[in-house]
Amino acid sequence: MNPFATAAETAAAVRNKTISARELVELTFQRIDALNPALNAIVGDLRASALSRATEADKALTEGRVLGPLHGVPITIKESFAYRGTPNTWGLPDLAHAVSPRTAVAIERLESAGAIVVGKTNVPVMLADWQSYNPMYGTTNNPWDLSRTPGGSTGGGAAALAAGLGALSMGSDLSGSLRIPAHFCGVYTHKPSLNVIEMDGLQPGPWDGSPGPPMDLAVIGPMSRDAGDLAVALEVLAGATGDARKAWTWRMPAPRHTRLQDFRIGYIVDDPIAPISSEVRKPYEHLISALTKAGATLKRGWPSGIDLRAAAETYGYLLMSFVTADLTGKRPSSFDHARWLRETQSRLAFRMIWQKYFESYDVFLLPASFTAAFPHDHSEPIDKRVVKTPEGPRPYVQNSSYWISIASLSGLPATVAPIGFTDEGLPVGVQILAPMWEDGTSIEVAALLSEVTNGFVAPPAYAK
Questions:
Q1: What is the pTM of this model?
Q2: Could you list the residue range(s) of the whole structural domain that residue 436 is in?
Q3: In which residue ranges of the chain is pLDDT below 50?
Q4: Do the domain assignments include residue 51?
């Protein structure tokens, strides 16, 4: 079985009995044993439970039952998700032996659809970095260049996927934690519309089923090597849970178009407020040229009314409100509910500008980061780090500034698709924004981009 097969192809092979689920999982672990030591992408081995679930999946087929669209598909999940009988430490050694009695809602949905979790992937401490290293599990390396980071905080998931360790991976995104690793490792990912996927069970320490905090920025979503797999996963993951299922159901609207030449595409390649390096600019410019030749309608420039600096300030406030939410009695006086409501109103006004824009355009393309994957840098403090570019050093923290915060603040869906490489051979991805709730549109564009790009390409050292 091709280790780089899509999730859909893998499920079809199991359903057609080309390979059994158990054989597939055993092959996956053989590959993990051979390749993961150098990558350190998978840090939680779930071999026993995976083999048991694979046996159950094969038994179901003999009884004429298909568990769902992911029947028998090996997947990985971010270490930060609760998974029964395992710790979700978020990189904190004090939580090493604190196992969860329950599995996060989203992961339960994937398993109900037939997916088999083979491992948990590495993260930075408290998911608070664009690299993936911690004192519990060490450092994860990028399969394109082991001296470089795969990104963070879902860096382990992106590295595993790119190396052919599992067909899907689940992660989370508050400040680019799905999108930057996908861009750094050359895979696909989807940051869904805000609150489309239930997040209960994404927390440090054991999860007992209690509700998590309300989310106004963070989401969870899938990573894949094929855009179509993102749609498959989203259909499984999204929608009401618990008591809410009595009242409403969710459906993903069909994409606005199914041919590149029918799409009206807004885009920005660069901006003085957040300049990108020349090494990643070149693939973006090639993409715009290819889309023009394909017949798509393109318009360069930000939507009218977008104030990037004001949006960044609102995003910064809401982000700090979120990350300091558990510091009872220690919160700065500026983080009061009245101000939170005012900033939330600004957030919704920002979304409204984009929604108005999408009456005339279908998607908006923009960079995922100002740079490609950079060498490991664990120096402290984080705000003193710099990233070397051909144009000179850049502040490390600009990774989340304007390019990433736009979709996080607005709650819009954003899909990242691989589009090419730097002159050094490092992957470059493009970020595709779509209207709120119309996740299928950005996913469809990501799929169609493979007509004018190479789509996913396996790292040479892992291509066999």
A1: 0.97
A2: 7-462
A3: none
A4: yes
